[in-house]
Amino acid sequence: MSISLLCIILIPLAAAGLALIHQGLGRSRSAAHAMLATLCSLGITAIVFVLIGSAWAGFPGGLAHSFQLAGKHFDWLGAEPFFAAGPLYAANSGLLHGPYAALVLALQIFAVGLASLVPISAGSDRWRLASICSASALFAAIIFPLFAHWVWGSGWLAQLTTLFGLPSFTDIGGAAVIQVMGGLTALSVAWVLGPRQGKYADDVAAAIPGHNIVLVLFGCILALIGWIGLDAAASILFYGANMLQLVVVVINATLSASAGGLAAVLITQLRYRKPDASLSANGWIAGLVAGSAGCGLLSPLATVFIGLVAGTLATFLVEILELHLLIDDPGGAISVHLGAGLWGLLAFGLFDPTAGPRAALLLAQLIGIATLLGVMFPLIHVSHRLLSRLVPFRVDADGDWQGMDIRELGAGAYPEFVVHADEFIPR
Question: Max CA-CA distance within the chain?
Answer without folding.
Answer: 68
